[in-house]
Structures are given as C-alpha cells and as structure tokens.
Amino acid sequence: MNAEYMREALELARQGRALASPNPLVGAVLVRDGETVGRGFHTYAGLHHAEVLALSEAGERARGATLYVSLEPCSHQGRTPPCADAIIQAGVACVVAPISDPNVLVAGAGFRRLREAGIEVVTLPEFAAEAEKLNEPYLYFMRRAVPW
User: Which of 6, 18, 58, 91 has the fewest Cβ atoms within 10 Å of its own Cβ atom?
Assistant: First the structure.
C-alpha cells in the first residue's frame, strides 16, 4: 500500500471542511496501475460522497483499482445510496482506509460488505490518529450521542 495516496485522501477530505457537516469529512483517491484515475471529497449532505465522485471520475478505469479513503465507506441507504455498493459494482479490487466509521448504521458493515464481495480491505493504523483528528466532532457525536 502506498502512504502517499492515503495522505492525498486525507488532504482531499480537508477540502470538505465547513461543507460536509453533519456528515464526516471524507476524501478518496482511486489508483490503478500506479496512476490516479479518480479523486473526490464529500461536500454537502445529500450530494455524492467522496467514493462515488472518485468512481465517477474513473469510469471503467475503476475496475481492478485500489481505493484509498479516509473513512470506512458507508453501507446504508440515507440521502444517498451506500458507497460500499457503488465500490462493489465498479469492480474495485482493494479498499484502504485508516479507521472504521462508528456510526451505528455503518460500524464495520461497510468493510464486511466489501470483504463478502471479494474486495480486499486493508487498514492503515499509522494514519488512524490523523483520520480521527480530522473528524473529531463527527466521531465524538457518533460515539457518545452528544454534540462536540
């Protein structure tokens, strides 16, 4: 796994600051054969999530690619369809993320759904502290059910 791509995903996530709330800040970088083929970050609630934007930019080049994302992909239907389903449908081979999403609607279900579809899931614990800090208010609320 390439740490450079995870750093880029975290940087992209920061671009959603003051836009994504109440959703988390999420950045995504899609890489195939050493080339970045898609990028995205979450902006406004109800719009496409970072993963879907990266997949859309990549098109068919997403098949067999590795997706670096700053938080576990969602696995539930909210205002948008589940990102995990979009990742599976696109034929992504591997998803790399530093932390899982503590939202009770996700909480490991995104990773589980990907694995069940035959997608390799890799966590990069060396980026966990940075990912946690990036989404501190969101994670606090999800874990404690009280605002930051």
Answer: 18
